[in-house]
Queue: 4 jobs
Job 1
Amino acid sequence: MTPAARRVLEAAARLFYERGIHAVGVDLIAAEARVTKKTLYDRFGSKEQIVVEYLADRDDRWRAFLAQCLDAAQPVSAARVLAVFDASRAWSAKNSSKGCSMVNAHAEISDPSHPAYPIITGQKEWMLALFTDLAGDIAPGRAAQLGRTLMLLHEGALVAHGLHVFPDPISHAREQVQTLLATTGGAAAKR
Amino acid sequence: MTPAARRVLEAAARLFYERGIHAVGVDLIAAEARVTKKTLYDRFGSKEQIVVEYLADRDDRWRAFLAQCLDAAQPVSAARVLAVFDASRAWSAKNSSKGCSMVNAHAEISDPSHPAYPIITGQKEWMLALFTDLAGDIAPGRAAQLGRTLMLLHEGALVAHGLHVFPDPISHAREQVQTLLATTGGAAAKR
DNA sequence: AGCTCACTATACAGATCGGTATACTCCTGA
DNA sequence: TCAGGAGTATACCGATCTGTATAGTGAGCT
């Protein structure tokens, strides 16, 4: 990716996230990236493609960040679940003051045949699979159920964070998960 | 409100919710409502005003629906909490297959000085106050904490419902709340 | 020196945006 | 019977939208 293309993607990511996808035009993206529209279209071909790469890149970076956080966490399953919430809190503090970009993008992209659609649903499926996987180490018989509960608390915390419903909802969710795992898991299994 | 104005609001509500606010133009709204743009602007003055009335009307109808469900519920506090989730499930099945309209609108409205902003945040504050109030009847010493947890589960369920992460997440949240209240509340206080 | 390629600047096309103006019809009620 | 408000149809405004075309600049590489 050329330097100009990277600037375009960075500007688009910031603008799309802060103002919404449909509210941002390519002229503004080009201006903020200090790039002409010609260059923008030479690199990406369409606004839709910029949207797709914006979401895909954000998904990639989130997964990489989370993987790094999980690697640094203790190998105890309960600790790893909590590490996900810690990662979300750190990520949201820096990159997501308006909530989950996938959820926000989904509000603007109605057509399931839109090329960005599978990126959005894919991340949510992946997160549910991750939670279910971690839950399987804690309560093997109820992995699906516990995984879904973790998913709901996590998504709810992201939404509450974005709408500033109350202070630091991700930490609140983390605490709830902690007590939930304490009453549920009994002995948290080693991984 | 004149018949034409009502048709405009109904069409705008459907289009805004399904396609997003910025993706829908006033020409389309007028066409779908079988109304000329002249009439549309005579009644509402601006697209922004239609957005405001769309959200305010939806908020009103949700609160009325929820109040009706709570009136029909048993006067036991735990049952009333569960009745909120039952109400959300019924409401979402009919009106909210794409998730919470307030959350979705928030994704597109970044400016806190936008006239629709207080409607969005107001509903969330109101829901948190409702959950906290109900929680106060169950665990008076931990009303704020329990109320926030209920809020997170509820918001998470709405998001998961809208993104179809797994089937019927609102029922799942309801079940989790049920077990949470059983372990927490002990004897659910009468109202 | 000469070539390639990323990039810039400017202008424009066709469509659509929110918003307005004019002139008309229809229905109700006094 | 007639006035007036609600609504209609159509045409238009300036601005902005996505996307394209042409011509030129500048740095690195061989």
Job 2
Amino acid sequence: MSRSELSLSEHLADSIVEIIRTERLVPGDALASSRDLARRFDVTTPTVREALRRLEATGVVEFRHGSGTYVGPGSERRLLANPHLPRGSRESVLELVEARLVLEPAVAAAAARTRVPEAVARLEAASTNALHPPQESLRQSVHFHVALAAASGNALLREAVEALLQVRAREQVEIRHRYNDRARDHAEHVEIFAAVRDGDAEAAERLTREHLGSIREAVLAADFPEVGAEDEGRADSAPEEAGARDAGPMDTGAADAGATGAGAETGVAR
Amino acid sequence: MSRSELSLSEHLADSIVEIIRTERLVPGDALASSRDLARRFDVTTPTVREALRRLEATGVVEFRHGSGTYVGPGSERRLLANPHLPRGSRESVLELVEARLVLEPAVAAAAARTRVPEAVARLEAASTNALHPPQESLRQSVHFHVALAAASGNALLREAVEALLQVRAREQVEIRHRYNDRARDHAEHVEIFAAVRDGDAEAAERLTREHLGSIREAVLAADFPEVGAEDEGRADSAPEEAGARDAGPMDTGAADAGATGAGAETGVAR
DNA sequence: ACTCATAAAGTGAATAGATCACTTGATCTC
DNA sequence: GAGATCAAGTGATCTATTCACTTTATGAGT
């Protein structure tokens, strides 16, 4: 009936998702080749590519030139950060931190109530492993906050926090790199962990609020590079391999979004 | 210079985003035609299409066959729901409601503290306009919760709630359609609005928690179609009308009225 | 046997040039 | 002036190739 109101390539994308699901493919598994898919669905390769590109944008599939197409981490993710964001100003980072300030304390409280053992273990690991190199600390922190959300037992909550942390990840790196007190960060993480471990929801909530409050202060103190000059700054201080290959289970590579590069930042925002 | 490890179409996608930004294009504005873009960037049309498809996936652009390519609502959105989700079970809907139960009370409290006037007005409209037809009520409810988040003054918070509401939108429609008490829903909305209007953060938080709690009960009571048979089941028991597909436009205003002739839409005129 | 270079096959990336379907607006009736 | 008609522009898709990269199996050379 109302079947194909969808464009061919849209329908194709859905069909491919269907394949991933019915064949129980998980991230990392290989997909049939473009040519195979084209034959199977009786369309041409450019059409298949369009469908795959579309899925790639949300992380459902990944391309590896010369090797094949693989299922990506987005295949089991419900929320995600827009990978194609324009400009970033201090305001946008501040807005992000303030959003986290509203949401994460509640998440911490939920985590302290549920305390999923596995996630609590990861939480401890993320708060114990201390003071690593520069870059590492941000990743550590991301791990901590994600593990915190995971401890709530609600995967969607974890995804929400993950997605939030991915927004403006680049700018967050910049700020933390320059202004954040890693020692204090670490100490606060330890305190939050203890509260969660002890099942003290009230304390977990309050401590998380204070923790993010101090991050907020750091952002306010930062003389964030204004739009227009922001290209150089981030290009040489943030090497692009922040990527994903190392750690185990839930590492989603928060910072790897896309190193845009490309020059000619002419405009001034607003 | 710009270490281009990116595929050509990835780079192209970023360039197009750059165009949208530097030319100050807003949702609804037309983009150059595929052929033009191909010429301008000296690539072929299939390559341009790949880039555009990728952007389409996140709502940054929209295609209109025979007419052109337009800027979409996603161009100014940082968080979004994965448009390619597999199966939906009762568990997943329950998980969603419980995530909202954790997050939204805090959002409501923030809203009561900030009370952005414009958003509060929309909040009142969404809670006053009572008991419309079946389908309409869900949309009304979405409007309410989004306006609530918007009243916090933090756009990212609003986007987070929007994205959350888009997840499993179809299943949510189904459940509300069958199990939810619209009258009670409405009454609770009115109470929450009053609390926000009066700047009573504590009450707003508690009322929102209770409100979502009752929605949670409705979900628990629902005998939702189980996984496995849902392939066919979903297709014919949930026609694809108000679901996820057109949840987007509500923010951009323009296209909203088209869906039903019910009118009375609080004009979002521009 | 073992190591290492190398060739072959498979795959994604992109090109080139068309054809068809749809929308839109201007022209042409009536 | 209202409506039908037509043509230009645009997206959607196809057919046919070529190039670049990865992986693997082959086959020296040691």
Job 3
Amino acid sequence: MTEKQENILKSALKLFAQEGYASTSTSRVAKSAGVSEGLIFRHFKNKEGLLEAVLQMSMEAAKMHMADIVMTTDPKELIGKILELPFKIKEEEYEMWQLTYALKWQTDSYDTSSQEPLKLALRNAFEKLGYQNPAAEAELIYMFIDGAATSILLHPPEHKSEILNALKAKYQL
Amino acid sequence: MTEKQENILKSALKLFAQEGYASTSTSRVAKSAGVSEGLIFRHFKNKEGLLEAVLQMSMEAAKMHMADIVMTTDPKELIGKILELPFKIKEEEYEMWQLTYALKWQTDSYDTSSQEPLKLALRNAFEKLGYQNPAAEAELIYMFIDGAATSILLHPPEHKSEILNALKAKYQL
DNA sequence: TACATTTGTAAGTGATTACTCACTATTGTG
DNA sequence: CACAATAGTGAGTAATCACTTACAAATGTA
């Protein structure tokens, strides 16, 4: 991975997240990265290949988080960790999450398979705690962290910790 | 409002929602509506004007819903109605909601002002019910309905009613 | 009927799009 | 050093973009 290649990925992430994938031209990416436009196609084949490379790079860190959470055995601890997830997104991760959330609505790119392990772990946790409908509770939490992440990414609320506390209270945490 | 004008709006809504605003060309809209491309610019000035007209048309119904909810005086009834909101989106309203949710991520188009009356009503309701932190509770619910709507619009879950019940239980409804 | 206004079309416009190609510069390896 | 592979450039390409313009058809109104 050369320096110019990294610059392309960084610029692409920034522009795709800020302006949208479709509205960002490869020439804009090249200019922002300080390289010739042809280099993008040499390294990433086409615009879609560039997007995939950007997503792959961005998702490395996220996968580590997930793996850690899924390993948690204590059900209350697991639920707590998942609820905290959207409230602990770091500033430097904003762009990648903005991009992935925006792409959800691009019909062809949506893929739910990465959510499954987390949902399964959640369902097990609620089962252990004797909840009446563990599957529904898991879906519910998943819906919530989606909404919370959206809200935080678009207009970070001032009282995050109070909101998180109100939320945790609903699960006696 | 002529028939061709209506066709343009319908086609634009459909295509903007399915393919995205930036990736949908005015010529595609014209073809889909069965009109000449020039007519779009005659009636709506430019592509952005077309988008605004589409959104305005789509939002008429939504505003009626909101108005009804904000008038509700009983706090528990109000909270219940708001929680039900995303679960009661009609099939024929999917496209407009998909479009508005997708546009959220287009930085320049995001506007939170329409959310304020609802948030205020929610805060009052939680105050009446003696919740410790009504503002945080209102934010929390707002985050949730956002996530629920997203989830339902992208991949409608099978057990909506069970999820809604699990949710209502958290507020003793 | 007369005529102004609105609705609609077809064929353009220059700019920008994703992408290619012929070429040079740099680097790794025997 | 030799020389192949890789990295990088700059000037192309045809297609498509949002939008305009000149003109015709339909409609409202006196």
Job 4
Amino acid sequence: MNERPREELPSLDPEMFDPVCPSPLVPFRVGDKWAPLVLRCLEGGPRRFSELKVPLRGITSKSLTHSLRALERGGFVARTEEPLPEHGVYYALTALGRGLLGPLDAACAWTRDHWDELIDAHEEAALASADRGV
Amino acid sequence: MNERPREELPSLDPEMFDPVCPSPLVPFRVGDKWAPLVLRCLEGGPRRFSELKVPLRGITSKSLTHSLRALERGGFVARTEEPLPEHGVYYALTALGRGLLGPLDAACAWTRDHWDELIDAHEEAALASADRGV
DNA sequence: GGGCCTGGTATCCGATCGGATACCGGCCTA
DNA sequence: TAGGCCGGTATCCGATCGGATACCAGGCCC
């Protein structure tokens, strides 16, 4: 599927994700907490475990393993052990996984388009609940 | 926003949702467990609490209240208490909530389009794990 | 006044999620 | 042979999710 794994694939930007993403306002979820970020990381080509941990700042091995296993079980990501010289474990999107990027993009776009409304609604709700309680 | 609440609005089909929807295979979530179903129920117009409980077979008052409150806080659903003669509590989609139906439809469509692949991937994963373990 | 229906709340409980921490075996290199 | 990186696993813990059950206040109807 991917001929030669990673000829000169640029390394992942350690800051590709906003560390203070206000995700609680976003009404969509794709997989578990880290899944959408993992999918993004794999968009450019196969990556190894330790490579994924860089932009996913703060993720523990356990969480990353768990997320990857779930994506694997769903058929969205494939795990392969490469022999020498590229030696290591590589994770790559399957066709199905790549297809998932479409809806993911759509969800992101919708959120961006309605960001102000989401903020407003959230603040209004906070005010209203402050009126009623406390 | 809605002139006269519910003139001859057809009542909800108690069987509008498949009781054995295999949702664990679906990689998307919109809000909490019941949120997408609630949104669907409100698609046709404002509904009262007890009306919503019909197609959402088995939902408890607590869960429905919780789900509705969350949707309210997010600005997707509005709660209004109607005086006589329509007397009662009505829940309706806001503009933002109605907008949410777009991405929701898209997610449903994607899932339908890739249903066979999702099933296959899931069964293959089950086989593979059976090979490795037990 | 004694039912009902409506629209909830209060409490408890088990399951799951996700982070913190510690540990580990295989391999490469110095 | 010692230390490092790589790719994890094992254990514990607190927070959250979601169901079960019980209860309740207000209004209408007889």
